[in-house]
Design goal:
alpha+beta; Elongation Factor Tu (Ef-tu), domain 3; OB fold (Dihydrolipoamide Acetyltransferase, E2P); 32% helix; 351 residues; Helix Hairpins
Amino acid sequence: MKSDKLSQLRIDPDQKARPKKSLWTIFLLVGIITAAALYYAIPRKGDDVRIFAGGGKVAAKASGTNNQVAPSSAAQTKTTASSPSTTSAAAPGNSDDVILTVPGYVIPRERIELSPRFMGTVNWIGVKKGDAVTNGQTVVLLDDSEYQARLNETKGRFASAKAAAEKAQLQFERVRALASVSIESKQQEDDARLDVVAARAVITELEGAMQWIQTYIDWCVIKSPINGVVLEKLVDPNELVTPQSFGGTRGPSTALISVADLKDLQVEIDLNEADVAKVFVGQKCRVSPEAYPDKTYEGYVAEKAPEANRQKGTLQVKVQILNPDKFLTPELTAKVDFLKTEVAVPSGKNT
């Protein structure tokens, strides 16, 4: 019974052998997959160009595991043209012959700050910011009461000195008359003559003192030296002013007002050293204020600094604006186009 059951459970040797056909099929599939992987892994000449929708071509550059896509030369040209820059060269064939465009700031050619010549107190100030002033117009009055008192005192001493000089002169004439008849000695005559000289010297000294005091009184009246506009009002009545600061964070004021002629304007530019060779004195320019881009003004290079700024790597250039008007305001930004041509410097303009 047991041997019959064992014979039933025994596996036939023909059934133990695995089918060889299925094994070779597995090997074939593995080989095909491996070959395909090797085919796509080998780099080829056209792999760095990708074509996207719209027909645009870009070059793909692999770096590590991240792919960075760089635009083609046509796309780079378009991007560069649209990006802003501080300087730009004109395209060939431009009728205006613009070789360089640089931003700058509008400034008055001369900005004058009126300061006192001595420490004093402001009695009156007759202008405010933005007011027009003329040459010789009184704009500030300082307190002159102290100097007026000194002048009156000196005038009194001067009158006494004149009286003393007249007395000395009369005494000298008497002594000289007596000396002529030998009643007075020659020495007394010389002493009387020297007294007259000393009295006249005192008069001269007091005259100089009065002129000195009068000069300070005249300095208390401060006038505008030019025709222009008040840019800043720096003091108020009853405020102490001095020609120099004593140090500290809140010293006395050192200036009263600042004025400038707004009909004599320039554009101040910090020119990159790479563009210095493109700019020369007398070069014709075109100025366009950023606040009014539709307005343009003619100008020329009036000044080119003899020394560059080492820290900035720039050279300062000043462009004189011809015929400025009310739309040009100091310290506003303006764009300057440098042209290839040269302009004749108008008479009366400093370069």
